[in-house]
Amino acid sequence: MIIDQTIGQKMDALREHLPTEQSLLLPLLHEMQAKEGWISAEAMKEAANYLKLPFARVQEVVSFYTMYNRKPIGKKHVQVCTNVACYLRGADKLVEGLEKRLGIHCGQTTADGKYTLNEVECLAACGTAPVMQINDDYYEQLDENVINSIMDKLDRELTHG
Ligand code: FES
Fold first, then answer.
1. Is 83 near ligand 1, meaning CB less than 6 Å away?
2. CA–CA gap between residue 94 and residue 132 (Å, rounded)
3. In sequence order, what are the beta bridge partners of 118?
């Protein structure tokens, strides 16, 4: 059971302000992902039962929004924007550098479970491109040196806790 008392209480509080059960789906999935790190088929079934929605509807929503992870992810989810503004400022080279550094391709997780790397669509910070998001933090005006120092810091954090 992913939907525990805390999540249930949050949904009850929201329910009062939302017109339909279906409107609770996005916040519910958000909470479930915050707890588990990703949305499994089991999680989708649980959400469908909880909101009394067809399973196919939940599946549709989870596959539509890229913010929902459909596979387990690493402790740090590195998402690099490769949309136009970031691409024009060398985001593809930054992705290549990260792939090399981590020894994985986009869409993969390192064997030690520390990092998952993904390319994403516009992160809505085009004025300070190129941009990446790691978990809930944004990093802007990136270049190779900036990325390396961010990653060095995260490596230290993950090693020393
Ligand atoms: S194109 Fe990268 S943030 Fe908009």
1. yes
2. 10
3. 79
Return the ∠ at Cα 74 (arms to 68 and 117), rounded to 5°.
75
Domains and CATH numbers, the chain: 5-64 (1.10.10), 76-160 (3.40.30.10)
pTM, whole model, 2 decimals? 0.80
61 lines ligand 1 (CB under 6 A): no
Atom of ligand 1 nearest to the CA of 130: 2
The structure tokens listed for 19 are 């017109």
Task: Please work out whether the CB of residue 79 comes within 6 Å of at least one atom of ligand 1.
Answer: no
Using an 8 Å Cβ cutoff, are 122 and 83 in contact?
Answer: yes
Q: Mind listing the pLDDT tens digit for each residue in 98-157? A: 999 999 999 999 999 999 999 999 999 999 999 999 998 999 999 999 999 999 999 999
Ligand 1: nearest atom to the Cα of 86: 2
